[in-house]
Write a structure and sequence with these properties.
With about 230 residues, chain A is of the alpha/beta class. Chain A has helices at about 40-50, 75-80, 95-105, 110-125, 140-155, 170-185, 200-205; strands at about 1-10, 20-25, 30-35, 55-60, 65, 80-85, 160-165, 190-195, 205-210, 215-220. Chain A has a domain at about 90-155. Chain B has two domains: about 5-50 and about 165-295, no CATH class; about 55-140, Alpha-Beta Plaits (2-Layer Sandwich). The chains are: A alpha/beta (about 230), B alpha+beta (about 300). At the A-B interface, helix 2 and helix 3 of A face helix 8 and helix 9 of B.
């Protein structure tokens, strides 16, 4: 599903590569944690999957497509097959829960009847039934993140990228978020989650890829966060 | 593509940037009005040139009694035979197409017909006006040869080339035209920069929305269209204001001039000018928006 082959990314005006000859394969339906300290290249990895950045060397395949051969014109179609969740939620403050989720479908031109059918389903999937007409400011951090996950998943993407989704949320609420991610993963969606949160990684027992200074230092199925134990 | 979504975005954008939008509208309106006035003068000059070119003649005025002209001083006026001889001489010149003799009576009749001459009629009599030959040229541009050939002839008071009078007037209109076009170009540049700035502000105000649209895979056109439409709508409103200005200019200024210059500037010409300036205005807005978006709205 995601295939990195010897990928190197050096940002302009920087000597040290953000990613240094990274090769990784993520299969369809997998749940992968991407761990490592700040600046280790986790975010760069996610940006490369979305083709927000281009690698300086190496090839990237996402959903069977070679990104270097994907024209800019087709990048939006790639992104429709990838959902994204961020630490800062990125909701539209002037739209309610339903409208925030529907927005993702409206802007890719889905018919209204389709939107009316699927949006309530997804809101229920993330556990926000009955809150469809609340505004983001009326929701807790955990609930806002659920809205963001609903928006990322409403188009049934093949891949869900989560960049520190629990970074702004207290540990108790984080468990609920992880349950939603797990539920999404069980529908067959590949989930790739970058995180600092050791407790979550340890409790989930999923595959762990650890980056340090742009290199993969560990790739372990059913792994834990820290190497020491 | 959902039209109501795009239009609500456009409306929000225009309202948030109200001052900039007004600035764009005013600049586009003034710029396009000046461009239109330049084009109107241009078309007026060319229709009038065509109209007058076959009508211009040389007037060869003859000496009369007590003429004030230097060439006539102390010389007798021409008698009938001499006049016929002079007419034959003029007709013999290779550049001349046709010669007509206008005596004092005919000159007085023509003079009376001119509406501007009413005041003079009270003091002028037929004997005050000189006899003249009205000389039509084969090529109106080639008058100097005729003037040279006749300048030594006795009995000629002076030679007036109507073309020179028209040229002064056309020259003045030509300068006006270039001034209007020059200012129009400056206004167009100002409008382009203003639109670029407006679009930049708009893109910044809505970076959250556009960021999300990008992430969920909205097409570039879908993301950019609201911004471009903002420019287009501001440009269109400016164009309409320019059209109103042009119509006022036609009625107040051009129609006023035409009571002197015979050839009217038609409404069809004005319609053409308005269409052209509107298209130019909107195209400028579209181009300015797209170029700015490429810089400030990464896709």
């Amino acid at each position: 599903m995601i295939h990195f082959d010897n990928v190197t990314k050096v940002y302009a005006n920087q000597n040290r590569p953000a990613l240094d000859h990274v090769s990784v394969d993520v299969e369809k339906g997998e749940f992968v944690f991407l761990v490592g300290p700040s600046g280790s290249g986790k975010s760069t990895f996610l940006r490369l999957v979305l083709k927000e950045e281009r690698p300086n060397a190496g090839t990237i395949h996402v959903a069977g497509k070679d990104l270097s051969r994907l024209s800019n014109f087709k990048v939006p179609h790639l992104r429709r097959r990838i959902g994204c969740v961020f630490q800062d939620f990125r909701l539209l403050p002037k739209k309610n829960v339903y409208e925030n989720v529907a927005f993702a479908l409206e802007v890719i031109g889905k018919p209204r009847r389709f939107i009316r059918k699927v949006v309530p389903e997804v809101i229920e999937l993330v556990g926000l039934e009955g809150k469809a007409h609340r505004m983001p400011e009326e929701l807790s951090g955990g609930e806002q993140q659920r809205v963001a996950m609903a928006r990322a998943f409403v188009n049934r993407p093949m891949i869900l990228l989560a960049d520190e989704p629990t970074g702004n949320i207290d540990p108790a609420t984080s468990i609920g978020i992880m349950k939603v991610l797990d539920r999404i993963n069980r529908t067959g969606t590949t989930v790739l989650m970058a995180t600092h949160d050791a407790a979550i990684v340890d409790s989930m027992r999923k595959r762990v890829v650890e980056l340090e200074d742009g290199k993969i230092v560990r790739d372990q199925s059913r792994g834990v966060y820290g190497q020491a134990y | 593509m959902r039209a109501n979504f795009i239009f609500s975005e456009v409306w929000i954008g225009l309202r948030r940037n109200l001052t900039m939008t007004i600035a764009v509208i005013v600049t586009v309106a003034v710029g396009m009005a000046l461009l239109g006035i330049g084009l109107m003068i241009n078309s007026q000059v060319s229709t009038m040139t065509n109209y007058w070119t076959d009508k211009v003649e040389l007037s060869v005025f003859l000496c009369q009694k007590d003429s004030a002209f230097e060439t006539c001083k102390g010389k007798p006026t021409l008698n009938q035979t001499q006049k016929t001889q002079l007419q034959q001489t003029i007709e013999g010149l290779p550049e001349v197409a046709q010669v007509e003799y206008e005596d004092q009576k005919a000159a007085y009749e023509n003079f009376k017909e001119q509406p501007n001459n009413k005041v003079f009629l009270t003091v002028i009599q037929a004997s005050d006006l000189p006899d003249s030959f009205r000389v039509k040229l084969k090529d109106p541009d080639n008058s100097q040869a005729v003037v040279n050939a006749l300048s030594g002839q006795a009995g000629i008071a002076n030679i007036v080339n109507q073309r020179e009078i028209l040229d002064t007037y056309f020259g003045f209109l030509g300068k006006l035209q270039w001034m209007a076009l020059g200012v129009a170009i400056i206004m167009v540049i100002a409008a382009t920069l203003l639109i670029a700035n407006t679009v930049r502000l708009s893109a910044y105000n809505r970076r959250r929305e556009t960021g999300i649209m990008r992430l969920v895979g909205a097409s570039n056109l879908y993301i950019q269209l609201p911004f471009v439409m903002e420019g287009v709508i501001a440009g269109l409103i400016g164009g309409v204001c320019a059209a109103v200005l042009l119509i006022i200019t036609k009625i107040l200024i051009f129609d006023g001039i035409q009571s002197y210059m015979a050839q009217p500037l038609g409404w069809d010409t004005l319609a053409g000018v308005i269409t052209f300036t509107m298209v130019v205005g909107v195209v400028i807005c579209i181009l300015a928006s797209f170029v700015t978006l490429r810089r400030y709205l990464r896709v």
